[in-house]
Amino acid sequence: GGGFGLLGNIIVGIIGAVLGGFVFGLLGISAGGLIGSIVTATIGAILLLFIVGLIKKV
What we know:
Elements: H1 5-26, H2 33-57
Helix pairs in contact: 1-2
């Protein structure tokens, strides 16, 4: 994560999960079922944590 501590990383991860679902929906990528939703949320959370980590280093 971005070095925000456990709670900060959890919050950023949750926001990333929501954004991941939103972006996948905009792209027309259907995440059907529980597994699809988990994969979408995980990808979104990982990407946002990575981006926030890069921004924080600058």
